[in-house]
Amino acid sequence: MVKKGFFKKTGCILISASIILAGWTFMCSSTSDAGLNAGVFTFDSETTSVSASQYLGDASIIMIEGQSGITASIGSNAFESCSLLTTVNIKGNANVSSYAFLNDTALTHFEVNGSASIGEYAFKGCTNLGTFSVGTLTSLNKNAFTDCQSLTTILIDNPGTFKTYDGALYQDTTLIYVPAAKKSLQIKDGTTAIASGAFSDGNVFDITFEDAKDITSFDLDQGSWPYFEPKLKVSAIGGANTPIQTFFDKKIELKGTSNYEIIYDSGSGGTTPTTTPTPSEDTYIVTVKEEFYSKDGSTLLTTNTSTQTFTVGTTHTISPEDYTSQGFATTETAKTVSAADTITFVYTATTDTPVIPTPTPTPTPTPTPTPPPSTGKVYTVTVVDEFYKSDLSTMTKTITRSTNKYVDGASYSFSPTSYTGYSNWGGRNESGVVHSDIKVCFFYKPTDGKSTAETTTGTNGGTTNKSGEGITASAVAQQTNKYLITKGGGQVVSQSGGPVTIVCNGELNKLLYILVDGSVLDKANYSVASGSTILTLTKEYIASLTPGDHVVQFQYDDGYAMTGLKITASKTTTTVSYKVSSDGSISSGHTKDTTPKTADGFDARYLLCMAIFLLGAGSILMGRQRKLEMILAEQRDDY
C-alpha cells in the first residue's frame, strides 16, 4: 500500500530536480560553447574573450572570426592543438597571448583588420601558416613565428613602430624577423641593424641591401643560418660595409665553405666595388687573412685579406710572409691546403712604431676602356617579352619579365627565355652599360605558324588553357613563389556562399591565368580587377565545387601565388506539400518533411529536463486523484 503523501512528495522532488538540471545545462552551454556554432567560433558582444587553454585540443573548430568593433582577447594556449583550425579572420582588434595557437598545423591564414598585439610563441609550430596580416601591429614578440615553415609574408596595413618590407618585419629601423619560406630578400633602404635571431628560421640565399652604408650592426646570433646550398649571394649597394663583411666572414669561416658571393656596389658613393671570387667546378679558393697586432698584443692594428685559387685534387703549402723589415714577426708556420679553406696568420709588432703592411696588389688583366665615371644614381632595366603574329605584322601580347636595379656605369646582359609554342626571332638592347633607364625587348612568334589571335586554346603543362591566350608561363615563373595573397586567403565557404573574392599583390597586367587544383580556370568562372589583382570567383562556380580543400593559384609571367579554399556542403531544407486523401492519409508519392524546425545547436539535455518536470507534475496529479478517491470512499461508508 502506497504511503499517504508519497506521490505529492515525489512530484515536488522531480520538479525541483528538473529546474536544477535545466539551470546547470544552461550554464554549461553558456560557458563551454559560447561563441561556437557549427565549427565557427565567433567573437561578438557576448563573447569577447577566451581563457587560458579553454579550447585546447578542440578538433571541432575550423574557423575563428570576430565582429567589427569587438576586441578579441585570446588567452595563453587558448586554441592550442586545434587540429582542424584553418582560418582566423577578426574584423575588430585582437590581443593574442603566448602559445595561443601552438601547434595548429592546419592554420593557413591569420588576419586582423584592426590592431593586434602578439605574444611569445603565439604561432609556434603552425607549419602551414602562410600569411599573417593585421591592420596595425602594436606589439609582437620576435619568437611568435618560431617553426612556421610555410610563412611567406607578414602584412601591416597601417605601419607604425612595426612595418613590413618585401614580406619581412621591421621594428623602427631594425630588421627583426624574416619569414621562413622566403628564398630572396630586399633589405629596406634606411635599415640600420639586423636583430638577433632575425634569420633564425630563414632559408634566404639571395640578399640585397638597398643601402649598405646604413647598416651599423649585424648580430652574429642567427641560428643555423646562413646555408650555402644553393650558393649564397649577397649584394650591397652603397659599397663595402664592415658589419656585413664581418658577419659573413665569421659564418664562412665557421662552416668552412666558399660557396658564396658578396658583391659590393658603389652606387651610393661607397668604396671601390670588390667581388669575392666564386669557385668554378674544377677549382677551389683559399682565403688568406693576415692579422697585425700592437707590440703588447692587445690591439688589432689592421687585417689584410687575399685569395688564392687552386685546381681541385691538388695540395699546396701556404707560408706566412716576412714582414721583419716593417717591424712585425710571427710564430706561425706554413699550412697545407687541399680544399676550400680560410687560414689566418697572426703577426705582432716588434717595435713601438711598426710600418703597417699593405696588401700585395693582385695582378690585373689587360686594361679595358674606362667607362664614364659613375654618378652614383640607380637606374631601372626592364626586360620585356613581346609576342607577334606569325607574319610579324602585329604584336598580340606583352609580358614584363623582370625589373632590375643597376647603378650608373654598371654592365648588364640578358637572354631570351622559352615559351611553349613560341620561338625567339630577335631582340633589342640585350646587353650594354647603364647610364639611364633602359627597356630590353625580346621578340617571339608562334612555332606552329598561328598567332595568339588565331588560337582559342593553349596548354599549360598539359592542362588546357581556356583563357584563349595560348601562352604558358616560363619554367622559372612556374617555380618562383614571389607573390603574396593579401586578402581572402584560406577562406572556408559553403557551396551556397559565393561569390568569393581573393586579392593578390601581383600587377594585373602581368597575370597570365588563374588555376584551381592545377587546372587553368575558364574566364567565364571569374573576373579580375586592378588594385594589385582582385579575383572574384562567381557564385555559380563556387556552387559547382565539391566539398573539401581546393587550391587557387595566381600565375604571373614572372612568378605565382597560391592559397587554400575550403568548400563546405550547403545545408538543405526540404519543402514538403501534403495531399490528404479522404481517409486522412498522405497520398502516394509524398513524403513527410524531416527537416529539424529547431536550432541546430539545441541541447538534448533540455528534453530530459522537460521529461522529469512532466513526470513530477504527473506524480502530484496522481496524488490528488488518490486523495479524492479516498474521500469518496469514506462518504460511501457513512451511508
From TrEMBL:
The chain crosses the membrane at residues 604-622. Residues 1-34 form the signal peptide. SUPFAM superfamilies: L domain-like (SSF52058). InterPro entries: LRR_5 (IPR026906), LRR_dom_sf (IPR032675). It holds the Pfam family LRR_5. Residues 356-374 have a biased composition (Pro residues). Residues 354-377 are annotated as: Disordered. It comes from the Bacteria. Keywords: Membrane, Signal, Transmembrane, Transmembrane helix. This is Leucine rich repeat-containing protein. It comes from Pseudobutyrivibrio xylanivorans. The lineage of its organism: Bacteria, Bacillati, Bacillota, Clostridia, Lachnospirales.
